[in-house]
Amino acid sequence: MTVAKKPVAKPKGKVLGKLRTAADIIQLIGEIVSPDQVKEIVGWLKDQQFSDKFIELTKKIHFQDKHDLFAKVENQCDAVEELIRTRSSMLADDAPISAWRVELDKIRTGTELVKEAKANDTKKIKALEKRASKLYNSVFIAVIGK
To answer: How high is the pLDDT of residue 29?
Structure first.
């Protein structure tokens, strides 16, 4: 005897239908951040004495060109590198700096491989974006100490 499966209800609405993961939700929030909020964030980063390069990279991450598929990944990698370079002495003794560097190298290598491929592989690009975002967030949280 087979049991009929209930059809899975899909979210209704244009926006809700696209939100499938937490990364999608974070991306949506990133798209609705106003320029005034960005100015507040930049002010806070300056108050916390983050480097000017890191602040510029953070702005680029949130206002990158939508047509450049690799811009966000590259900017996040550069920002992580800048955080490690400028803030590693302030991190806890058990901070996984070497693991961050290894992950950073893997993401950069993956980016180069996908760029060199003839076809645009959106799945691989999205996976690289996800990995870069996760790395950026973990390093930033470790730096601010929360």
So the answer is: 56
